[in-house]
Amino acid sequence: MKYYDKLIFELSESGRCAFSLREAKVEVELPDNLKRQSPLPLPEVSEVDVVRHYTNLSQMNFGVDTGFYPLGSCTMKYNPKIDEEISQLPEFRDAHPLMHSEGLEEIYSQLDKALAAITGMSHFTFQPCAGAHGELTGLMLMRAYHESRGDFGRKRIIVPDSAHGTNPASAAICGLDVVVVKSKENGLVDIESLKPLLGEDLAGIMLTNPNTLGLFEKDIKQIASLVHGCGGLLYYDGANMNPLLGVVRPGDMGFDIMHLNLHKTFSTPHGGGGPGSGPVGVCEKLVPLLGIIRTSAFHGNTGVIIKALAYILSLGKQHIALAGKYASLNANYIKESLRDSYKLPIDSVCKHEFVFDGLLEPNGVSTLDVAKRLLDYGYHAPTIYFPMLFHQSIMIEPTETESKQTLDEFIAVMKKIAQEAVEDPELLHSAPHNTPVGRPDETAAARQPILRWRPE
Ligand SMILES: *Cc1c(COP(=O)(O)O)cnc(C)c1O
User: Does the pLDDT at position 1 exceed 60?
Assistant: First the structure.
């Protein structure tokens, strides 16, 4: 029997028990209608069954703590354990959300100052609990800014075709009309396509720089002056702030509003749904509006905020400035090492991440096949089929926390997979071969999900 074949209920054998308690004397007689009619079907298992079952399950998980996780647009970097320990000190962990604490206030205020210094914004609100939540909060601030000036006609927002999917979604939820601006061949915003989209009904533009292709918008100053020129504001999607740390600041590029994902860049592990934090920073002229926006019941996800401050203070100004540089160096190293095996649609120096468009010699092998085969070699797959500018996108972001040895091993495996595609494509079509779950039928999984086990 393989350990992952069974649920704890299926391991049950009548009479087995993992604990012993003294017989309970029932003191209260419950009314009949509250009494259970049949015994609760709990699994009957021994202690060793329980320990093996859950220990084995825990090892089926893949995380940054178990291996290399080059998931582009996600910054799955290693998060120092000391930050976790600090955030779990009882004084922090046990604080009630309604408790007034000068200590916590000081932490929020210090992080506000640190993030302002890193980003060039004036102040942050820590209410948002995710990046997308930050986008919505930031766009509400954008709208509030225009309305505070008696300007009610600004309904359109420009979003590039390479944007993260949450950008147009947040704008739509905020009641704005999304207008897409095209990218040029080289992956950057096409200024000539941008110009006709400007106007008095423009609320602003949402950008990320470097963009989702890992490319720096060199014309950002010109974009900023065009958008400001017609009265719009610039929103910066800073979910992936990693490559910019200590190098360049969105505030200096001309952005007015931005969010950060503390759970990508600032030492909170993510994936699986939280907790996260997407603080929103604004430039000086929008600071008075921070007080009127309420998108969360409390100040923020305090544990995440403590980790971010601990991370920033432990690295310090000097070392935090290395993170972005190493992240970019690592990405370029992988890109250049694999360009003879994978198709590089945009050939330029990248920042923290880059995109291949499938194999150079696909031989019928898709990006999905490559991603599945990587699992066999013990790697998490990169982001695939995003951005949608290419048909076979493979988006790789190694982060600064990986060593050259790890990168070299990954490069060797990626080359081996390219070789396998030439020699034995069937091996890739049927991958993965070494994982607990093979290749699921994704259509069936989406159309008829079975999410619950029921006893026979
Ligand atoms: C991850 C990400 C987001 C969304 O962040 P969530 O915390 O998942 O809501 C937004 N924009 C970009 C560029 C991202 O990478």
Answer: no
